[in-house]
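Thread: quick sanity check before group meeting

JM: Hey all, I'm pulling together slides for Thursday and realized we never actually wrote out the predicted structure for the chain we discussed last week. Dropping the sequence here so it's in one place. If anyone has concerns about the input, flag it before I start.
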Amino acid sequence: MGLRAKDVVLTDSAASALESLEHSPDPARRSTARRAREYRGILLADCLHGDVVKKGRIPRILGDRHGLENLYVEDLPSFWRLLYTIVRDRGERYVVVVEIVDHATYDKWFPGRR
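JM (edit): ok, ran it. Output follows.
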């Protein structure tokens, strides 16, 4: 059993990306959206499920935009990525999905990372 979270919330950016994927005419993009939605249950049960991005490797653009102290990555279908952080509020853990991005954006933020 993993480290549980009270809730999973999406930033405006992540919510917008998810909505765009869900309403795409491309079945692969809709599949990516379904998988992203499925991660809610996984992350509620184990908020440390994803791959850890070392603090020194968190892209400055994301750190500045979201005030990140930690960052985790989950792989999605079609080379999309779900990026999230864990925050604490009043003793409770929350998962905040900060971005859902395609391969090109991810590679721009994390050059050379595989």
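AS: nice. The two ends are 27 Å apart (CA to CA). The longest strand covers residues 92-101.
JM: adding both to the slides.
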